[in-house]
Structure formats: structure tokens, C-alpha cells
Amino acid sequence: MEVHHPIVVGVLAGVAVLLAIVCAVGVVVMRDPYQRLHFPSVVVTFSTLLIAIAVWIEEKDPQARIKVTLIGLLLFVMNSVLTAATAKSIRIRQKGHWEPHPDEQIPVAGRKEVAGAFGATEDHQA
Amino acid sequence: MNNVWLWAAAALLLALIPCGITVFRGKPGDRLVGMEMASTVVTLEMVLLVEGFQRTPFYDLPLTLALLSFGGGMVFARFMERWL
User: Fold this and answer.
1) Do residue A88 and residue A111 come from a single domain?
2) Do A43 and B5 count as a contact with CB atoms less than 8 A apart?
3) Confidence label for A126 from pLDDT (cuts 50, 70 and 90)
4) Is 70 exceeded by the pLDDT of residue A123?
5) Which of A43, A88, B17, B34 is paired with A78 by a 20 to 30 Å CA distance?
6) What angle do CA B37, B42, B46 make, to 5 degrees?
7) Percent of chain B with pLDDT over 90
8) Do residues A73 and A108 share a domain?
9) Helix A48-58 and helix A5-29: axis angle, to 10°?
10) What is the CA radius of gyration of chain A?
11) Distance (Å) from the C-alpha of residue A57 to the closest C-alpha of chain B?
12) What are the chain B neighbours of A78 within 8 Å (beta carbons)?
């Protein structure tokens, strides 16, 4: 079965662009920076993947295919690092510290103590 | 403009408007997230333009932008912790 390339490429690029626009609106309407931080990841993961697939379908030049794959991989790997660094800096800016304190009452999964209590301090020192 | 890539590039420009609104308003953390989103969108925009104009060697531009936006974002994040 022959696939009509322009239609497939158009659908892939269209979905990628639509997703990027929706996520950009999401960045504006969310309440705090921690919620906003989720939306660039969606664009990096799905829009980039869809555009890379579209380029692979359309383009016969291996140079273009390799470069668009490299761009996607770079964005994917670096965005996760950047998101973690941004979240950390926002927390330090808001609270003045990175480690959780007991008075923040942050629950820890599977334990009765809150984060920053006895066990967490021990882990931090280790 | 009978090229699906260029239409997609034109439509993707709309995604920069909310990023601009976020960057020009709010607290520094919100602005930083808006900037990171904008750099991702612009990288994809450049990929679409390169493909639309059939200039394969220009793929180096979005590649470089992806690398530099990571460095820029990390510097802003690091400085925002205490100094900005």
C-alpha cells in the first residue's frame, strides 16, 4: 500500500504544531512555575518526535535525517537536565534552601516521617 | 505558499505569543520557564523553516540553538537561585 507522503507529513507537522501551541497556552494559564515546567517537556518529547518522523519521511538526504535526529536527542536529554535545574533554582529562590525541612510537612512514600526528619538528614549526610 | 513545512512554521509562530506573555509578566521563575519554552519552540521553528526552504546545510542552526539554549537556560537557572 503506497502512502501519500504530503498528507502524512502534513498530519505529523500539524499535530506537532498544534501540540506546541496548546502547551504554550498551558505555560501561561498554570498557577505556579512548578506546574508551568511540565509543558516544555511535552513539546520537546512529542512535537520534536513528530517533526523528526516527518523529516525522515520527506527527506532522502541522510545528512538532514541524522541532524534532525541529533536535534531531537539533544533537546530530549538536555530538557530533562534543564527542567531539574530550573525546579531546583525556583525552590531555592522561594525557600532559601534545597533540602526539605521537617516543618514543611512533605510526606515520604512508605514512611511515617516527613521529609527532612531523622532519616532524610542521615541520607543527606551520607 | 504551497509548502506544508512553511505553513507549519507560520502556525508555530502562534506558540511564541503565550511564551512572550509569560516572559514579560510574573515572577522570575515563571519568566525562566517561558524562556525555556520559547527556545524549544524557536528550535522547532528553525527545523521547519530549513525543511520548508530545502536548505539542508542550515540544519546546523537549530542544532546550535539547541545546544546554546541549554547552556543559556542553565546559566539563568543557576544565577536565579540567589543572585538575580
Assistant:
1) no
2) no
3) very low
4) no
5) B17
6) 155
7) 80
8) no
9) 160
10) 21
11) 12
12) 66-67, 70
CB atoms within 10 A of CB B43: 25
pTM equals 0.87
How close, in Å, is residue A71 to chain B by CA atoms? Answer: 5
d(CA B48, CA A60) in angstroms, rounded, equals 16
What domain range includes position A119?
A: 101-126
Q: Which residue has the cell 521553528?
A: B45
Residue A4: the pLDDT is 64
* Interface contact A7, partner B, CB < 8 A: no
Determine how many CB atoms are found less than 10 A away from the CB of residue A105.
Answer: 10
Report the number of distinct structural domains present in chain B. 1
Q: What is the SS3 assignment for A61?
A: coil
> What's B41's DSSP letter?
H
This complex has an ipTM of: 0.91
Across the interface, of A63, A74, A89, the residue whose CB is closest to B77 is A89
Length in residues, chain B: 84
